[in-house]
Structure prediction request, 350 residues.
Amino acid sequence: MYYVGLTSTYSGRSHALVQTVGFLYSFVAGFLLTAVPRLTMTAPPAMPAQLTLAAAIVVSVVASEFQQFAIATGAFLAAHLLLLSLVVVRFVRRQQPPPSSFALVGLGLAAGTAGALINAGVATELVAPFWDLLGRRLLTEGMMLLLLTGVGGFLGPRLLGLPLPAPSLELTAANASAGTALLLSLVAEYGFEVAGMATVRAAIVSVTVLATMRVWQRPIVRSTLSWCVWTASWLTIAGVWLVAAAPRYRADFLHVLFIGGFTVMILAVGTRVVLSHGGHGSTSEQRSWPLRLGMTLGLIAMVARLGAPFAPRSFFEHLALAALFWLAAMLVWSIAFVFGAALRPRRHRP
Prediction:
């Protein structure tokens, strides 16, 4: 809209909050409130709690778009505390232990709590602006990375057709140690300006993803969905290493992680959830054209965004193209899976 002159300003802060809260966090909340009750054998949250959570997210997104950051960050803090309470209650009442990789999920939620508190404090001038970057990075490079690796460690092998590791205290402790080290690297870098932490973080993410997803080998299950998961895993590794190797372009190369890693993984996992809850078999994932088209358009958006800093004369043109291709990817996927036939359960003949 800024590129074509429909708006007179462009707020990178609004953009970051809208995408983090409106897109990434909506997926986080929806997935956890679907998966955690099943994994812990507890009751799903009541509808009023779900609607309250959804309303808080919408308020945060709308306020972010209008640059009302005190309201936006406060609404997100409320949403996150509600989600955290719903997850913790089910963990305490669990009838069986969650997967070992969910230690990373717990740390991701803790990172989200710290980031939400800092962001709200900065917006209301209760916290010094110096901590603003740490608050934002705790949500993206902290919460989302930990959730991606935690959920990936549980779902990834299933989607790739790999054998699942047996849950154990040793594996849980290893995941918790890796997640704690990742969080400490964020605090050291963005809170105390310690050099070299991006490299440490890249090494932690790479070891964790390679150990849980085993993407050095091609997927055993050859389907569109498995290739999306495989691609997203490698782009996650590439994104963190590009940031470490070229800190000057940190904000730009982080989009390899955001678009290539997070977006493609969300499309893949979202496809599995929609198809399985819609009563469709695994054959629906074999050659899913909406998923293929969504991933392709998303990757084009990633390339367009990466080209922006290297073409200063057409910087905003690159951002506009990236936005259009990303929106097209989301629309294609949504229309096919949310509003289309994919949501209607397949009728079985008697």
